[in-house]
Write a structure and sequence with these properties.
Helix content: 40-55%
Number of strands: 9
Largest sheet: 9 strands, mixed
Distance between the termini: 28 Å
Radius of gyration: 17 Å
CATH architecture: 3-Layer(aba) Sandwich
Shape: globular
CATH class: Alpha Beta
CATH superfamily: Alpha/Beta hydrolase fold, catalytic domain
Structural class: alpha/beta
Number of helices: 12
């Protein structure tokens, strides 16, 4: 499949399987499905290197451009309510339905990790396993915000909720901000280019602005989970990472690596290795 729809919005998807790229679901029925959810300001191509390795390992991967990132899925009203975490979760459910998948292995990074945690909490029957990169459990992050380091390094979230200011700032400084935090220049320039598309940056920032009114229910996680965290992450610190396991009620694995925040781009081997290990363990 190349796209799916929900509530009048059209989402682009990269669907890959063991026999080649862009396979339809009818040709991938025998392959476990892995949904890959990107973060800010990335897109589905942040998973290209990881997906290649997963496909080689016998898996089918579905990587959508999420709400605000797909040109056909940038709602302007109601704003920012249209970007509430509950809407982002239901977008993934719609992807599974469109692909004919009852249960998938779900992987998320950055904001995609927040969606993955919320999906596993709200719809555990649709999630065979969870692998989250960089992003701690929401409850662990909330507790960690009492720590001065995490509070200081989360100030950008409040900045991104302001009207107009973040658009003006990021239009000039996005590439520099991304590369200074460890993202390779080529990736930073590509993502910045996409953010210049009409409505793209406003849509992506809608995720932050919706935080003010869409807190929702934070569920403890009841599916097998792996959490991979880079000890050089400049956004998400050790306290939240190490307490995440308190909010997982079943099989849990914490993996600490000597990397920064942008794990799918800079550490695809480690990411794929941990995803494959989690999928295979659940299959046993």
């Amino acid at each position: 499949m190349q796209s799916f729809s929900r509530s009048g919005l059209d989402f682009d998807v990269t669907d890959r399987g063991p026999e080649g790229p862009d396979r339809g679901p009818e040709r991938a029925e025998g392959s476990p499905a892995v949904v890959l959810l990107h973060g800010f300001p990335e897109d589905r191509h942040s998973w290209d290197q990881v997906s290649e390795r997963l496909v080689t390992g016998g898996l089918r991967t579905l990587a959508p451009d999420q709400r605000g990132y797909s040109p056909g899925a940038r709602p302007t009203e109601p704003y920012p309510e249209a970007y509430a975490i509950s809407e982002l979760v239901e977008d993934v459910v719609a992807l599974l339905d469109a692909a004919g998948i009852d249960r998938a292995h779900v992987v998320g990074h950055d904001w995609g990790g927040a969606v993955a945690w919320s999906l596993a909490g709200a719809h555990p029957e649709r999630v065979a396993s969870l692998t989250v990169l960089s992003t701690p459990h929401p409850a662990a992050l909330a507790r960690a915000l009492r720590d001065p380091w995490q509070a200081l390094h989360s100030t950008y979230m409040a900045l991104f909720q302001l009207p107009r200011v973040p658009e003006a700032l990021l239009a000039r400084q996005l590439v520099r901000w991304l590369t200074s935090s460890g993202l390779p220049l080529a990736s930073a320039e590509r993502y910045a280019g996409r953010m210049r598309e009409p409505g793209a940056l406003r849509g992506a920032l809608g995720w932050y602005r919706a935080m003010r009114t869409s807190r929702g229910t934070v569920h403890r996680t009841r599916v097998p989970t792996t959490f991979v965290w880079g000890r050089r992450d400049g956004f998400l610190g050790r306290r939240a990472a190490e307490t995440t396991g308190q909010f997982v009620l079943t099989d849990y694995r914490f993996v600490e690596v000597d990397e920064g925040h942008w794990l799918p781009e800079v550490a695809p081997d480690v990411c794929a290795q941990e995803i494959l290990a989690r999928v295979r363990q659940v299959a046993l």
